[in-house]
Amino acid sequence: xxxxxxxxxxxxxxxxxxxxxxxxxxxxxxxxxxxxxxxxxxxxxxxxxxxxxxxxxxxxxxxxxxxxxxxxxxxxxxxxxxxxxxxxxxxxxxxxxxxxxxxxxxxxxxxxxxxxxxxxxxxxxxxxxxxxxxxxxxxxxxxxxxxxxxxxxxxxxxxxxxxxxxxxxxxxxxxxxxxxxxxxxxxxxxxxxxxxxxxxxxxxxxxxxxxxxxxxxxxxxxxxxxxxxxxxxxxxxxxxxxxxxxxxxxxxxxxxxxxxxxxxxxxxxxxxxxxxxxxxxxxxxxxxxxxxxxxxxxxxxxxxxxxxxxxxxxxxxxxxxxxxxxxxxxxxxxxxxxxxxxxxxxxxxxxxxxxxxxxxxxxxxxxxxxxxxxxxxxxxxxxxxxxxxxxxxxxxxxxxxxxxxxxxxxxxxxxxxxxxxxxxxxxxxxxxxxxxxxxxxxxxxxxxxxxxxxxxxxxxxxxxxxxxxxxxxxxxxxxxxxxxxxxxxxxxxxxxxxxxxxxxxxxxxxxxxxxxxxxxxxxxxxxxxxxxxxxxxxxxxxxxxxxxxxxxxxxxxxxxxxxxxxxxxxxxxxxxxxxxxxxxxxxxxxxxxxxxxxxxxxxxxxxxxxxxxxxxxxxxxxxxxxxxxxxxxxxxxxxxxxxxxxxxxxxxxxxxxxxxxx
Length: 662
Ligand code: MSK
What we know:
The chain is α/β, with parallel strands linked by helices. The protein has four domains: 11-54, no CATH class; 74-234, Substrate Binding Domain Of Dnak, Chain:A, Domain 2; 246-390, 3-Layer(aba) Sandwich (Rossmann fold); 408-655, Rossmann fold (3-Layer(aba) Sandwich). 49% of the residues lie in helices and 10% in strands. It has a six-stranded parallel beta sheet, sandwiched between helices. The chain has a five-stranded parallel beta sheet with strand order 5-4-6-7-8. Strand 10, helix 20 (455-466) and strand 11 form a beta-alpha-beta unit. Helix 11 crosses helix 16 (373-387). The longest helix is centred in the first third of the chain and has 36 residues, at 74-109. It is globular, with a radius of gyration of 24 Å. It starts with 10 loop residues before the first helix and ends in a 7-residue tail after the last helix. The protein binds Broken Fe4S4 cluster.
C-alpha cells in the first residue's frame, strides 16, 4: 500500500483536502500531482520570446554549447527569463500602488468621498521626507501634493526615485556605483521588457543587474508607496488580537471572504458590514450576522488594521469554497486562482470579481469604483446575503481556529521598545549586540502545492525562534505562522530560546511579528534602515545579522521581493527549486558576483534543514564581522534593560496625566 501523502501542515486544510478527495473533487494539490512541471521551462532553459522557437537549450554541455535559433546561449536565455519574472512582479506591486496613489489623490480632492485621511501624522512625516511643505496646510492639501508626487514617480524618466533616499547613505552609494538606482517605476519595467526582447541584451551579467534595478523600483518605490499610502488612508497598524484558520467560517452567519491584494474595497466592506441596515437585511434572510474573513494579502491588510480573521493564504482559497459555507468570495487582483470559479459551480458560493484588470469566467462582476466605494461594497454584501438561503449542507466543515496577534508596523515596533517619548530601536539593537537575540530573519512569501502547505514555514519559524532569532513575517508566510498559533506572546514562553523569550516577555510581544501583506515587505526595509541608523550594528543593511527567506514561493512577485532584498544587502534564500537551475553562470552571478558588489546574494535551497543551517551560519558570520559577542544560548552580555509595557505606561501617564495612553 502506498504511503498517504500529506498535502498540508495546516490540520484544518488537510482535513478539507481529504474530504475533497473522498468526494471526487479536486484542488491545486491534486492538479500539482497530476501536472508535472516541464523540466526545461522549470529550470530556465526554454526560450519563447520569439516565434523562431520555443528553443530548448538542453544537452550534455548546454551551458557552453547550446544555442537557440538566433544563437542565444543558455546563460542569456536563463537570465532573460529571470529578468522578465522580476519585472512582472515589480509591475504587479507597483500597479497596485498606483491605484492606491489615485485613491489618496481623490480622497484629498473630495472625488472619492468615502475615503478620508486617517493617519495625518504619517502623512506629514512622509511629506517631510519628500520635501513637500506642511506648515499650517490642511491634511487634504498635503495629501494632494504627496499623491501627485508619488504618481509622478511612476512615469519619471530621469534622475532617481525619491524614496531611494530613505535607505542608509552607504547603501545609496552602492546603488549609484553599480548604476542600479531606478529612475521611474514604469521606465524600469518597460526597459526590462525591451532588454529581454529578441536580439537586445545578450549579456547575462547586464541582464541580471537590470533585474536588481527593476526590483528596487518595487521595494523602495512601488511597494513602499503602497504601504505608506494605505497607512495614511486606513491607519497605521497597531497590534490586534484575532483568529486564523479556514475553520473561521460560521454556520449561522453570512460568510464573506475578501481575497486579493488592494485593500480599498475591502476597507469599505469592513465599514459597511457594520451598518444597521445591512445587518438587518442579513437577519431578515435568516442569518445571525455577517462574518467577514480575509484571504491572502487582503486578509493581512484587514487583519492588521481591524482584527478581521484570516482564513489563510494562497492555497486555502479553493478550500474556502469546499467548506460549503462561503456565500461570496470577493476578489480583485493577484494570486487569485481561476479554479475558485470552477469549484464554485459545484457549491453555492458566488465568486465576485471587482477589478477590470482581473475578470474571470463564471464569476459575477461588480466593478469597483472609488467614487462610489461604499455603494459597491453594499452591493457585494447584499449579493452574499441573498445567497445565504442557497446554502446546502454539502461541504467540509471544520471549526477550529488559532489565536493571532498581528499589526506590527515599524512605527509600533519602535513604540513598543520605549513608549511614545522614548520610541527607538535601541533595545533591539542592544539585545542583538549582547547575544540575547542572535539575529533577525524574515520568513515571507507564498505557498506552493508542490511543497506540503506551510510545512517549511512552520519548521523554520519554530527552529529560528528556538535559536533566539527574532522572526518577522508577511504575506502567506505570516498566514502560515498565524494558523499554526505561533503569533502569540505565549509562543515565546513555550518555544523561544532563553534570550528571545526574555525580550518578548519584557515587551509582551510574540517572537514572530506579523508585519502585513506582500507590499509590506517594505516595512522590513524600513525596520532594517532604522536598525542601521540606531547604531551599533554597522552602517549599512548588509552589516546586519539578518536573512530573508521565501521557503514555499511560487509568484513572480516573490522573486522581485527577493531581488530588492539582495540589492539592499541581504542574504536571501528561496526554498524549492531554482528557476535558473539550468545555468551555472547565472547562479554564479546571483551568488558570488552579487555578494561582492551588493553584500547580498540569492540562493535556492530545497532542503529546509540546509536553509536553517545556511541562515544561522550567515547570521553568525555577520555577528563576527561586527565583532559582537559570540552567540551562546542562555549566555548574554550586558545591555540596557528593556522597558516593560507596564513601566512604559506608568512613564507615559506621568508625563500626560489627562490624556491616557492608547
Ligand atoms: S498573497 S504573492 S501567494 S505571499 Fe500576497 Fe501569498 Fe505569494 Fe500571493
